[in-house]
């Protein structure tokens, strides 16, 4: 999806490095078992946290005009999607730093871009160059949305493993019970916690086959123990209960999760799949 800068190796390395590094990380992840759960590849992690003010600076100055334009594009896009047989409710259209390119969120779909006619859909990496370093527009917008979504989750819907001492960083991990890389990550949970990293697990069954065990974990009186048992291949049984598994599975799909473990930092940046504890600490900026 990235443009090839065959005659400019320095620029090519700077820009495509954003995608290459995250692609390598995602090789260490278990993929969905069903084609019905296949989604777009996750956006690459941004090099620095994005702020609301930074996004605001990239939008036009006239709020009234912008709001009217956004609403017009949203209506055009919704009509064009319907004409093409795509059943999706467009919830927001936001201008980006790139002229005539808009960031779109729609129910049940990963975010994407459209133009000012609402006829074209762009899925992939948009990178702005010309500054001191390439600016990953797609990743920053995705991270801002993800940060809000993760912060809104109820801690009671997670299985949390906290450090015994100071918490220096927090990660959110979409996980499945029988994923080999998920099990490897959890086998190192003590080392991860020892580095001051709090792990907040979120259920993401890769198929209906693991849905019952994920629900049993989240219905167990001791979820931490149940999750550890499941990661060790042991049976987990618990009475059925009202649980968040399907809701959070859908959230993962909306955020572009395409395999497990899917690791996000507290700023919404997607770090990738499994990585050793020390590498994870470096990705979080911990020395």
From TrEMBL:
Domain of life: Bacteria
Listed transmembrane segments: none
Signal peptide: 1-35
Subcellular locations according to the entry: Periplasm
Glycoprotein keyword on record: no
Keyword annotations of the record: Disulfide bond, Periplasm, Redox-active center, Signal
One GO CC annotation: periplasmic space
CDD domains cross-referenced by the UniProt entry: DsbA_DsbC_DsbG (cd03020)
Residue ranges of domain Disulphide bond isomerase DsbC/G N-terminal in the record: 67-130
Record keyword Disulfide bond present: yes
Thioredoxin-like fold domain segment(s): 164-284
Coiled coil regions in record: none
InterPro entries referenced in this protein's UniProt entry, alphabetically: DiS-bond_Isoase_DsbC/G, DiS-bond_isomerase_DsbC/G_N, DiS-bond_isomerase_DsbC/G_N_sf, Thiol:disulfide_interchange, Thioredoxin-like_fold, Thioredoxin-like_sf
Similarity annotation: Belongs to the thioredoxin family. DsbC subfamily.
Chain's role: Required for disulfide bond formation in some periplasmic proteins. Acts by transferring its disulfide bond to other proteins and is reduced in the process.
PANTHER family reported for this sequence: THIOL:DISULFIDE INTERCHANGE PROTEIN DSBC, THIOL:DISULFIDE INTERCHANGE PROTEIN DSBC-RELATED
Designated name of the protein: Thiol:disulfide interchange protein
Organism this protein belongs to: Faucicola atlantae
Upper classification of the organism: Bacteria, Pseudomonadati, Pseudomonadota, Gammaproteobacteria, Moraxellales
Gene transcribed to yield this protein: dsbC
């Amino acid at each position: 999806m990235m443009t090839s800068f065959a005659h400019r190796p320095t620029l090519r390395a700077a820009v495509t490095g954003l995608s290459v590094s995250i692609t390598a990380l995602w090789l260490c992840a278990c993929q969905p078992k069903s084609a019905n759960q296949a989604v777009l590849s996750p956006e690459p992690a941004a090099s620095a946290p994005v702020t609301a003010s930074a996004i605001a600076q990239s939008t036009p100055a006239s709020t009234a005009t912008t709001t009217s334009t956004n609403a017009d594009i949203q209506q055009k896009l919704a009509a064009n999607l319907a004409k093409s047989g795509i059943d999706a409710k467009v919830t927001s259209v936001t201008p980006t730093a790139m002229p005539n390119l808009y960031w779109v969120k729609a129910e049940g779909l990963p975010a994407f871009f459209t133009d000012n006619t609402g006829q074209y859909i762009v899925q992939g990496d948009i990178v702005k160059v010309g500054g001191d370093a390439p600016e990953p527009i797609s990743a920053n917008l995705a991270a801002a949305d993800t940060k809000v979504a993760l912060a809104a989750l109820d801690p009671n819907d997670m299985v949390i493993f906290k450090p015994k001492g100071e918490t220096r960083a927090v990660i959110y991990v979409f996980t499945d019970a029988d994923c080999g890389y998920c099990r490897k990550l959890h086998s190192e949970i003590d080392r991860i916690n020892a580095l001051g990293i709090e792990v907040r697990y979120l259920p993401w069954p890769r198929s209906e086959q693991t849905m019952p065990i994920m629900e049993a974990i989240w219905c167990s009186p001791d979820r931490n123990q149940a999750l550890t048992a499941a990661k060790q291949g042991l049976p987990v049984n618990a009475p059925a209960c009202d649980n968040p598994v399907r809701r959070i599975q859908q959230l993962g799909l909306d955020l572009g999760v395409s395999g497990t473990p899917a690791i996000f930092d507290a700023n919404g940046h997607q770090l990738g799949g499994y990585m050793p504890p020390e590498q994870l600490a470096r990705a979080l900026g911990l020395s």
